[in-house]
Specification:
The chain is an alpha+beta fold. It has 13 helices and 22 strands. The strands form 5 sheets. Strands 6-5-15-16-17-14-18 form a 7-stranded mixed sheet. A 6-stranded mixed sheet has the order 8-2-1-12-21-20.
Length: 401
């Protein structure tokens, strides 16, 4: 067991998974989260096979499946014609993973589950309502400056994991550039109880190509397990939150997407800026960046949180090796492996996913559809595509590096 604790700034799923992985290895961990309770606003929900493998190793898989919805397939649709273009089935990965499916489990459920586990461990403390404000470090350790109930405090640790989100205080304190760009349009998320599977035949994960307004559609289990559907649309640059949230505008958008009798029952509406950014470095001295603090991307494909959990698990394993007596140089592997993997398997993939859905040239759209149909029909290509989208391929690359 390490003499000084490992500090974690950020009590979202990435920071909490890192804490759990380290604590299960016997290390003391202190987690500091700015919010007083877990944020239940709709955020990431898709948990890919590669991530399910990691969560299983942490003893979480049964609860994740219980709290979420198993989605074996996902679909691509042509929205203007209302025709399904292709369907991909994770069952083809049955020889590649213990979990040839995706689980739709909202990230706040994962966070609450991990906090519950951590609070049952004597070598972990989770400090809610405690905001990281800065840090300093030297060859002997890290000092994290935090604020709780208006009172400033400094906490010492051997290492620090910055998992405090896209606006990361830790990344900014280190002066690390967040390289990339922000899309001009924002993404609108509308959550409804209407059943798009019964009404349209849509799968739990469905992507709609449209030159005028692409869309994504996902089913999650919701607070009572009965199921809710999240629809995602792009807004026009300059659209105000008031305008897109207006009841009439929301109803018109959904009725245009899928006309039905009677109004839609809206459970939640959200709008957010969308970025494609990667930190110039994932490590500086004894401090590491993970999850959104290290990389952000558009959500098409559901890769961001998954990659963040992979950051957490790989970093915990590297720290365990060093705390077990291996040289500090082992920690160089984190930035050397995780940053290129994010760029190749998350940034490039999510940009390509968005481009495919918003393509305006009809010839190119039809070529994209033909390529998807060929992949779905060819078992070898089908498997190769899913190995990449499920992040199993990226895990293989990390292990080989």
């Amino acid at each position: 067991m390490s003499q000084q604790p490992i500090l974690v700034a950020g009590g979202g799923p990435v920071g909490l998974v890192a804490a759990l992985a380290l604590a299960r290895q016997g290390h003391a961990v202190e987690v500091f989260e700015a919010e007083t309770q877990v944020n239940e606003a709709p955020r990431a929900s898709t948990t890919h096979p590669a991530t399910l493998e990691m969560l299983a190793d942490l003893g979480l898989i049964d609860d994740i499946v219980r709290l979420g919805l198993v989605a074996r397939t996902f679909q691509f649709w042509d929205r203007p014609s209302r025709q399904m273009v292709a369907e991909f089935d994770h069952a083809i990965l049955k020889d590649d993973t213990r979990f040839p499916f995706v689980v739709q489990c909202e990230q706040h459920k994962l966070a609450k589950l991990v906090i519950e586990r951590l609070r049952g461990m004597s070598n972990v403390n989770v400090h809610m309502g405690t905001r990281a404000t800065g840090l300093d470090q030297d060859a002997n350790g890290v000092r994290l400056h935090v604020e709780h109930d208006g009172k400033a405090e400094t906490v010492s640790g051997r290492y620090l994991i910055g998992a405090d989100g896209g606006r990361s205080t830790i990344r900014k304190a280190l002066g690390i550039e967040f390289e990339g760009y922000t899309f001009p349009e924002r993404f609108l998320v509308l959550t409804t109880s209407f059943d798009f599977e019964a009404g349209w035949g849509a799968g739990y994960r469905s992507y709609f190509s449209d030159p005028d307004e692409w869309a994504n559609l996902f089913k999650v289990s919701g607070p009572d397990g009965k199921g809710l559907w999240r629809s995602v649309f792009p807004t026009r640059p300059g659209d105000t939150e008031e305008a897109v949230f207006a009841d009439e505008a929301v109803e018109q958008r959904l009725q245009t997407f899928f006309p039905k009798e009677g109004p839609y029952a809206i459970v939640h509406r959200n709008i957010y800026n969308v970025h494609q950014r990667v930190a110039a470095s994932f490590r500086q001295g004894r401090v590491f960046l993970a999850g959104d603090a290290a990389h952000v991307n558009n959500p098409i494909g559901g890769l961001g949180l998954n990659c963040g959990i992979h950051d957490a698990v790989e970093l915990a394993a590297l720290l365990n090796r060093v705390l077990g007596g291996e040289p500090e140089a082992v920690l160089d592997e984190y930035d050397r492996r995780r940053r290129p993997i994010n760029i190749e398997y998350v940034q490039q993939q999510t940009v390509a996913n968005k481009k495919r859905l918003e393509e305006k040239d009809e010839r190119v759209r039809q070529e994209n559809f033909a390529a998807l149909r060929r992949m779905a029909a060819d078992p070898t290509a089908h498997r190769a595509f899913l190995l990449r989208t499920s992040l199993l391929a990226s895990v293989g690359v990390a292990r080989a590096a």
